[in-house]
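Summary for the funding panel

The consortium committed to producing paired sequence-structure records for every protein in the target list. Below we show the first two records in order, beginning with the earlier of the two.
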Amino acid sequence: MEDIVSLAQINHRITDEAQMWTFGCSITSGIGINSYEIYDSKIKEYLNLPNKNISCPGSSIIWASDQICRSDIKKNDVVIWGITSPRRTHKVNYNKLDFILPYQIENNTELELLNYERQYYTQYFESNTELYDILTAIKRAKNFCNNIGAKFLAINLIFDYIGWSQYYVDDQIKAYLKNDQYIDVGNDGIHPGPKQHQEFAEKFIKLYKALYE
């Protein structure tokens, strides 16, 4: 959750030289594994760049896009985006930004949604409106990075349930995960494990080589 009053407090750079930025959800946060096993640590070693990990469990594609566009990214920085599940959105509740996932609508125990809110979010997920929001968010982040001369690359780390990748995949954005099965899982029994993170890293490094080397 994020206090909406603090929206102006954007994450700052960690160096005046070129750096790496990583954006994503709980997978990029490394839930279920050690920090040195997260896929961005492998990429960081390969690029030999300091890395700023900006991730939040439960966060959405729209949230990550906003973080990219409002961070102090500069020319020659490397932006790594582990795209999360498309079936996520957000709601401001008591001055806090809450992320909404489908299961929360079903059990309604965490967010205490009103009936009209439950109906709206139920209809929103997997709708053309959500697809539009996701496509514009991805394009917005990509265009921002390209316009300032940053090296941008994005791969989905969660299965694309609504098919955004059918409409928008190019040299910098890849739909890697074709199903919802991981090679292994972490100690929480849910999130991808070290082997899967290693493969994520290899996919990103392969894409980086193809684009920028």
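The next record, for a separate protein in the list, is shown here:
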Amino acid sequence: MNSSTSTSPPDSDQSTTRDWTVVYVVDLCCLLCGRAIGSFETRRWPWFGPVVLTPPRGQPAVPIANWSQLRCPTCSGNVYADEVRPTKLYPSVALDDLDVPRRGRPPKWLVAQRQTTRSTVDD
């Protein structure tokens, strides 16, 4: 049977490289009272390993061995992942990398300055 559509694998020459990584931001809430417990970031989801929990209202971050074992500090209810947001984490860029030469014709004042510089160097 001959099909007009083919699913050929992409060429190895067209390999795509990513400059970012996916980080999941997970918000935790109490199942019983609905209060926000905090949030943490992880590179894999689902994840039940060690995380650094950031409580709400600017409290200091706390390392947690397993977030699924947490309890609400107010009512001792179970904690669940209320919202899981995948976000892209880009590497930091140095300011030197952003200073690229401009394209196009240079301004007249710059051309005149370069000509005077050349004439003083040639003399």
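Regarding this second record: Residues 28-89 form one domain. Residues 103 and 110 are 14 Å apart (CA to CA).
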